[in-house]
């Protein structure tokens, strides 16, 4: 079994203590950061499929999520290039009612790497909290909303519309997450959409520099 396959197997088994070491070993073996990350993302998809099939339950999903987060910690210094923040502040959060944060954390990392200062509000973030944070921070140029549940797509749309109607200006809004399509994103009134963390950073830059 290759190191990447071991990472995947242990992640899917929710072994949070073993995954970081295996990720480091995969790096030591010369495996690429993106290859390891994409393998871990695929494993989370596999865990989701098992959940849908009734083969695993919420606790197993939670353990896999913890293992993924620990693995990403090892990759973080290699994903974030430490360039100075020059594109302003990005306020990011997972929308109200939604507790998924792995994708949001990856997006935050990539956006930071693209040159933003990132203020991460965490999960289950209401429109009021986004607005409070926009007011509390200087030079907010981007607001990023993540959502993973079809049931919280409504909260995403409401949040974008409330933020846009708040009268606050000077920033663009970007949305994304597994159930979000560009078509749905357009109905929210957001300025931009991205399907994954890498393209979120590219889109963020594009929106702010336009
Ligand atoms: Co949940 N869950 N979960 N879960 N969970 C999903 C999302 C699900 C697809 C599983 C399934 O049924 N197959 C399903 C949603 C179905 C639907 O709505 N259609 C689901 C469900 C049903 C639930 C509960 C309702 C289960 C229950 O209680 N019965 C419950 C809801 C809780 C809540 O939020 N209120 C629940 C709970 C949980 C845990 C808490 C146990 C845990 C999350 C822990 C955590 O995040 N810390 C969990 C997990 C781990 C998953 C799966 C298995 C993995 C999610 C993940 O981290 N993926 C997931 C199955 C799956 O994804 N296939 C599932 C890896 C991550 C890197 O991908 O987040 O998609 P993702 O991010 C991507 C892109 O979407 C994009 O970039 C990232 C990659 O580069 N992206 C953006 C994300 N945000 C973006 C923002 C952007 C741009 C791009 O711009 C701002």
Automatic annotation (TrEMBL):
<dbReference type="InterPro" id="IPR036594">
    <property type="entry name" value="Meth_synthase_dom"/>
</dbReference>
<dbReference type="GO" id="GO:0046872">
    <property type="term" value="F:metal ion binding"/>
</dbReference>
<dbReference type="GO" id="GO:0005829">
    <property type="term" value="C:cytosol"/>
</dbReference>
<feature type="domain" description="B12-binding N-terminal">
    <location>
        <begin position="1"/>
        <end position="87"/>
    </location>
</feature>
<dbReference type="GO" id="GO:0008705">
    <property type="term" value="F:methionine synthase activity"/>
</dbReference>
<dbReference type="InterPro" id="IPR036724">
    <property type="entry name" value="Cobalamin-bd_sf"/>
</dbReference>
<feature type="domain" description="B12-binding">
    <location>
        <begin position="87"/>
        <end position="210"/>
    </location>
</feature>
<dbReference type="Pfam" id="PF02310">
    <property type="entry name" value="B12-binding"/>
</dbReference>
<dbReference type="GO" id="GO:0031419">
    <property type="term" value="F:cobalamin binding"/>
</dbReference>
<keyword id="KW-0170">Cobalt</keyword>
<dbReference type="Pfam" id="PF02607">
    <property type="entry name" value="B12-binding_2"/>
</dbReference>
<dbReference type="InterPro" id="IPR006158">
    <property type="entry name" value="Cobalamin-bd"/>
</dbReference>
<dbReference type="InterPro" id="IPR050554">
    <property type="entry name" value="Met_Synthase/Corrinoid"/>
</dbReference>
<keyword id="KW-0479">Metal-binding</keyword>
<dbReference type="InterPro" id="IPR003759">
    <property type="entry name" value="Cbl-bd_cap"/>
</dbReference>
<protein>
    <submittedName>
        <fullName>Methanogenic corrinoid protein MtbC1</fullName>
    </submittedName>
</protein>
<dbReference type="GO" id="GO:0050667">
    <property type="term" value="P:homocysteine metabolic process"/>
</dbReference>
<dbReference type="GO" id="GO:0046653">
    <property type="term" value="P:tetrahydrofolate metabolic process"/>
</dbReference>
